[in-house]
Structures are given as structure tokens and as C-alpha cells.
UniProtKB/TrEMBL annotation:
Organism: Gordonia phosphorivorans
The enzyme's E.C. designation: 2.1.1.-
Domain Methyltransferase: 46-140
Protein name according to UniProt: SAM-dependent methyltransferase
UniProt GO molecular function: methyltransferase activity
Transmembrane portions of the chain: none
Alphabetized PANTHER family for the sequence: METHYLTRANSFERASE (PTHR42912)
InterPro entries recorded: Methyltransf_25, Methyltransf_Superfamily, SAM-dependent_MTases_sf
Amino acid sequence: MAPDEAELHAFFHRLHAGLPRQAPGSPATTELLLRLAGPLPPRPVVVDIGSGPGASTIPLAQLTDGVVTAVDVHRPFLDEVRDRAESAGVADRVDVLEASMEDLPLPDGGVDLLWSEGAAYLMGFDRALDEWRRLLAPGGVLVVTEAEYTVAHPSAQVRAFWEPGYPAMRTTAGNVAACLEGGWDVAATYRLPESDWQEYYGPLAARVGEFSAEGIDAEMLAPARAELAVRRDHGDEYGYTAYVLRPR
């Protein structure tokens, strides 16, 4: 009998537990994007939406001297954030919030730097920009990475991978146009390098190999194997682009 959705969801978290990050990125890219975001207050209020285990949260705390709140719906990820913050010596400046990015229990106008790497697509780029805007303080900035097609006509294999979960996925040109139409100034864009994908997929591929060696049901591992295969064979057709945005 094929695993049902609940079983696959539970297995996804088991497969990903303890991995260093849950989306493409790297400490170098986080630092670069922070520079592109421009000057911040001496102790900025920072919110990392869809933080996962804190791959961006901890560098943001270290690099800004601000108070950073990691937001995620998965409590074990937030527990990892706390552990990482303690190890990095920034536990006094890292908070966690278990909440959905679609219903953030945060006050309006209080965030100097709103950050989200590899997560906005879960609710859709346009909706995320529209709903998160209220959180920014005057002079605040949003840094977000977004999944995008990098070619005008992606292959059937790539569309079959992305369209079921993200039918609204666009190119950089389409997203820049949407930002401008939505009342945002685009201060910078940056395409994440392939090395940032390896930061994510390298550990994931190793974990898939470990589970295979342990005799884990191949059907349970099939989605992860398919994800790794489409990146290996068609990675030039899609990627993540970072946007540094300021509301007009």
C-alpha cells in the first residue's frame, strides 16, 4: 500500500531532522544580502520567517547585534534554533515563535529587517509581499529569496516538479514587475550560486544514502530522490533569486 500524505509528511521531517539548512543558501550569501540591505539601526529588530533550524537566524544575530526572532511552524526546528543560538553565544538575542507565515501574530510597524530564505513560495511571492509589508518599521527592509524559472520555456520534467506545488512560479523579470506593481522599490537582486544548492542538497543526499543503507522503504524515499534528480539533470532551468525590497 502506498504511503498516505500524513505518512509522507512525517517522513519528510524525519528525513530532514538535524540537517544544517532547509533551503539553498549559505553564510556567505546571508552576509552579502545583509550588506545589500544597507544600513540598519544599531540594534535592529529582525524577524526570520520560515527560519527552519536557524541557518540564517544565527548569522543575522551575529552580524547585526540585533534581536532576531525565528518564526516557523515546526517546533523541532525552533528547538534547533535555540540550541544553535546557545552554541554561538547569541541566545540572549534570539527568540523563537511557533507560528504560520500566513498568520503572523506580530504587531504592525515594528520590524527593521524582515528576512525569509527559501520559504515565501509556500504562500506565494505576491501574497507574502502583500501580507508581510505591514510588519516593517519606517525605513525597514525586506530580504526574501524566491524560487524562479531561469529559462523562458522550462522542460516538462521541471514543470512537473514545480507546478503541483507552485503553479504561480515565474522568472526574475516577472517577479521584479510584480514587486514594482505592488509598491516596492527593488534595491537589489541576486541569483543564488550553485554552491548554495549544494549546501542544502549535499547533506540531504547523504541522508538519503544513509536511509537507503538502513533499508528504509524506497517508496518513502522516492520524493527526495526525485527532487535530487531533477536538480541534477535540470538545475540550469530554475533557481532562487534574492530580492532586497523597500516599500514605497
